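Q: My labmate handed me this sequence with no annotations at all. I'd like to see what the chain might look like in three dimensions before we decide whether it's worth expressing. Could you predict it?
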Amino acid sequence: MSSGPPTRVLRVDLSTGTVTSDSLPPSVRRRFLGGKGIGAYTLYRELAPGTDPLSPANVLVLAVGPLTGLLPGEPRCVAVTKSPLSGTFTDSYVGGSFAARLPNALGDHVAVVVEGRATEPTVVRLSDGAATLHSTDQWGRSISETNRALDGSTACIGPAGEHRVRYATLGTDGGDHQAGRGGVGAVAGSKRLKAVVADGDPRTPASVGAEAVSVAETYDRAFHESDTGRWLDASGTMETLDFANEVGVLPTRGWQADRFEGSERIGIDAVRAAATARERDGDFRVSTSRSDSAVTDDHEDAVSDDGHSTVPRGATPMVLGAGLGIDDFEAVVALGDRCDRLGMDVISAANAVAWAVRASDAGHLDDVETPPLAFGDPGAAEALLTRLATRDGELADALADGVDAAAARFGGDDLVPTVKSVALPAYDPRGSLAMALAYATSDRGACHRRARPVIAEVFATETWSHAERAEAVTAEQTLRSALWCLVADDFVGETLSDYGADLLAAVGLEYEPNELLDLGERVWTLTRLFNVREGFTRDEDRLPTPVRQPSADDVREGVDPATFDDLLSTYYRVREWDTEGRPTRALLERLDLAALVDDATPVPTETAADADRDDGTGTTDDEPGRDA
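A: Here is what I predict for the chain of 628 residues:
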């Protein structure tokens, strides 16, 4: 058994150049553990309501969990901040060598909190529990170039982060791994933080002790023998495109259709045909060195050092392929590669391009100088993506602030759906009401990783009731919230019958499985409190106009607003929130959060269920809603 998990937080003030170390009270460490939990606790306690996400007052938290590096699959860490895209809490997870080395680089710290703003581009180097600050000449360089130039395992931003694109990423391993969505890279750029370097050995079960090795081996066998493990070993997440296309929830050509006729040319069969090798964790590697590729690169890092690029996970061909009507597999890979090197979230960037094509077709951009725009044209997509990263031109500047910002400037708010200004990812909620609910109630804006009930719902033998949908979404959100405090990959976590309790014991932390689910609910509730304090209400949990309308090909009906409103009320009752989606006093007492909540956060006493009883309306939990 190890001597125990880290109990401190490292703090870096870029404005003053100072580094300090604070201890975490034992009760805080127990209630929030690590990863997402510590990030949420830090953000709620330290940010004043209304803080500008791109101001020096915002903080960027890089945190590990007690199981980082010890579980099957790739090790992960988390970046937590207030999102410049949504204005909500946001947490984004990234793997690779940086995540593997970060625990030992942090020493007895569970996280590093970066605040302030440097006077010049800066690199923070972490080693053996200490941090040092260094000026850098890498400003303006891509993520892959910066990774090669800096000695050590690096998490860095590209040009998009430097130009504060509101969905800029923080990339590791030269861009092979990305903390995407939410704009953590823009926050780093606003602080003139080019990179964080983690020095030290990777954390492994062997470095912890024999008990950790034994439990980790048991978990590894269980994972690879599970349906999830076999699926990931066989295809990574690339098969999600084929699934979405088969069941008719694959957004195509800017959300105008739900199936893509070119899916077989960019799906799992295309990966297998192009694969030259397979990594242990199930990723495939394919050549992107085709000399006549429609997508070019101005830099020598168009491909990685070995002449290959890791095939993106399933979301990339879904949004850059089907979403843009592109059925050339190598072109899709190269577009994803371009986003990774520039440091942009592929889902948000692809939806921005899709919006631009549709807005141009609808006449909203007639008075704007634009590059040629068309679905099915990888060269046009590449040109706009490149301009987006540096805000080059009026259209690119607007799109760099997100689809909602562009629509507010030019019109076209009914073209591409967003929730809390975050573009919807790869599953069309018109085909799954439970997925619609998951998008609407995600704590960081539209997200398919908080909960993805679409698979269970579309294959259900009977139409789900509202109660079944609400309970499925709630359970997944709670479980993933707990896993991200560990920090565990959510696919791996689905296979842990004890939610990691045995391995936690091996590192000196005793939790019962039910306590870990309580942890997940506590942290999910805390992020909701953060968003409520920022002014988010029930209105922001509604679905956007595009998914309330039928698909352009008339295959899918739009989601009925009244039906969804009933479903949302059911979810609030399951969560023990009030009718406006605010956690109640009794819930905060049960989750040991009441003492943490400040006076700026509205806390009601009556739940949504109480309100139903008071007005005599009862509930609609047994109503099936419409067929999904």
